[in-house]
Amino acid sequence: MSRLVLRRLVRFAVSLAVLVVAAFAMIHLIPGDPVRASLGPAAPVELIEARRAALGLDQPLPAQFAAYVAGLFSGDLGTSFLTGEPVAEVIATRLPNTVGLALIATAVALLAAVPLGMWAAVRTENGRNRGTEAAFGSVTGTAVAVPEFLYAIALVTVFAIGLGVLPPAGKEGAVSYVLPVLALAIGPTATIARIARVETLRALGTDYVRLARAKRLPAARLHLRHVLPNTLTATLTLGGLMLSALIAGSVLVEYVFAWPGLGMKIVESITQKDYPVAQGVILVYGAIVLLVNLLVDLALGVLDPTSSIKES
Amino acid sequence: MFRTPAAVAGAVLVAAMVVLAVIGPPIWGEAAEHIDAGAILQGSSAAHPLGTDNLGRDLLARVLVAGRYSLLLALAAALIGATAGIVLGALPSVLPARPARLVTGAVNALVAFPGLLLAMFTAVVAGLGARGAVLGIGAAIAPGFARLTQTLAASVAGADYVSAARMLGVPRRRILARHVLPNIAEPLILHLTQALGGALLGLAGMSFLGLGVQPPSFDWGRLLFDGFGRIYVTPEVALGPALAVALAGIGFNLLGDALARGAARTSAPRTKAVAPESADPGEPEPGAVLDVRDLTVTFPGGVTPVRGVSLSAAPGEIVGLVGESGSGKSLTAAAIGGLVPYPGVVGHARLRLDGRDVAGLSRKELGTSLAMVFQDPMASLNPALKVGGQLAEVAVVHQGATRAEARARAVDRLGHVHLPEPGRQARRHPHELSGGMRQRAVIAMGLMGTPRLIIADEPTTALDVTVQRQILRLLREVTEETGSAVLFISHDIAVVGELCDRVVVMYAGRVVEELPADRLTDGAHPYTRALIASLPDMDTDRSLPLASIPGRQPAPAEVGDGCAFAPRCPLATDACAAGRPPLVEHGPAHRVACWEVTCTSTA
Questions:
Q1: Mean pLDDT score, B323-338
Q2: Which of A175, A264, B19, B385 gets the highest tally of CB atoms within 10 A of its CB?
Q3: Where are the beta strands (DSSP E) in B355-416?
Q4: Cα–Cα distance list, B255 to A76, A136, A145, A258, B191 (Å)
Q5: What is the distance in angstroms between the Cα of B342 and the nearest Cα belonging to chain A?
Q6: Does B6 touch chain A (CB under 8 A)?
Q7: Report field, pTM of the whole predicted structure over 0.90
Q8: Which residues of chain B lie closer than 8 angstroms to A290, CB-CB?
Q9: B215 touches chain A (CB under 8 A)
């Protein structure tokens, strides 16, 4: 157990280090002069030189990297080319909006998907109700295949523009969460429901469920007490991994809803060639994903004491 | 492969996309570029069903034309990703150990990152535009391919033919090219189909964010980007590209699913199983705890693994049910316990428990009077629940006990089956108990009620010999104490002979002989005799091969009109193949179904 924790922590640290190097390298990998590219060919030479100096681009590479890492430790992610705002501040104001959206969407997806998957499994156990099985398969298969930004556009068109019952954009109050959360949650709901169904079918076929049936337990007790806990490990793992995918997926959804989160910011900064902001946001996104994966792994170790996680 | 409607839909959608990519530009190319200053930024009209753009160009034509570019970009990204991924994935199998581990580690780290982030990173570095987006999406696809190649290559590398090639001194690179890659090509191609769909959606996303294709070029994502800006005024202009992207995504996904399932899917028969007409129930056996007449279990297609089995058990009696695997003994037990899985159908002339029809018994009565013990104690307790709780719920659900009462009773019952420190065991999870302890716990679970019948389906097969004895002794003890009958199913005639009062021998779904256990050596049916003869004992000459029964038991679908054992029987005559021998009296408490035995004895 503790060895597992240690190994996960080491892997997390290594991945994080790689991420920092990649984020640092990003600005240097951009062909030509990033400052010139950002400020445009018309910008005066003095301004460009000043910006270069401010960024430390006139320093030798190792010194730049040392300064970058030192900056990270003191919470300094650089300053925006365009507004001169500290990148850390930009991220701090926007990160909660993105994380909140992703967490709510994940919770909604889990709450909707687990009962749906269980219901489908119970109905289609041992190949009964082939119609339900086919319908479940096609509906979830289709729902998974449509990207979240199309859901977002469809929801905006119908509920905000067509019916006018929900706000089309921005973050003002609980109501404004409804459409972005829905757009983000539909795909993961379908994926998790499929997994939940498979896991439930597996549990239904076990001897312990056979024995529980021999005890003539009522259906609700059988399914909720004997089947559900045994499907949760796999389902929650997937839910955790979904969360990191969802954080990335939120980039497009935030764009559709002009949501004041990190996703909106990354798109803006890339289009405007505001490289320090893009660099900082990518770093934070990557770190969040690594952190979520670490937490999922560790939670699994606690949740499922019988099967230690296999090393791939 | 294309049996399901979903698979057909996927194939049709993808085929339509390909056709559109080929014929789209030549047919609608001119219309898509035709600038009309008089029709700028229009909504839907008869002339322009999806409206026009800021130069008055027809959007329907543009959507139809953009298919080719969207598909080509996706193909390019998928191929770049696949090539890079396969190379990365194959590298560890040709590199020395240390760099190989480095590559594996890098791939594992990259797989964890969401594709879109990788794509954005690459796009920033490579510059905005179609080139950057394609490279970015390619980079996003590569880690998945690398992981898949690694996994597949590792599984193939362990195969015998690769080991053989390595022993022969074939260079590693050649092994990879000649032995490994061809054998993993199929799943890789399958993954490419899915990656193609993913690339198409990814590129659409990048273009939609304005990070992909830039004007004057246009793909579906770019058209959506333009349309989205006007969505408040003319929502229909976003409809065309959105629908195109959605359909493409759905098509590739459904097709990929269908390919992945491929031939693996077996179609189950659609016919429903029909139970045979129940014969006359006759007179119930007085005083019997279990009274079964003409029990059948039928599966769709007329397959009948249990055919007309009749059984009875008196209070305190242990009845052994023996036979090879596939003889229908476990299904018989499941049918009596009401646990035959769908689509099996149970039929019977009579099925009575403790003098009452099973059909008329309530959940509560069945749950407390019928106990079951299965073969694998590792699998028959729920790993997620504590042992005590699994016992206690019987009392809570069926006997209306409070949680505390139920717990106390569970601990008491665990002690009753000689589990040491029952209070502590009750608080543990099943995986903390040994196999023998778990089987005791399962038996204790049956004792939570007042069992009239215990069905024990090979309860000792998974246990080692010393534990087996303890469990058998416990079963004996429980019967003597509760007066419950036991139906003990086993393939081990030695155990049955030792434990049981009466033995019922099954072959191919039927009872072929029934006799008191202490007269097992008087077994008359050739099958029973063969089973007994195949038992080694202390006097067995170990220089001779172990006795066995030649041939195999017919599968349920192969059983014909005659005696099912005839093909393996040394005594078989023409009569045996022609008609099935009935189960007839053959001495006191002894019945047998064999033409040869009954004819000889009457003659």
A1: 86
A2: A264
A3: 356-357, 370-373
A4: 48, 16, 11, 34, 11
A5: 6
A6: yes
A7: no
A8: 112
A9: no
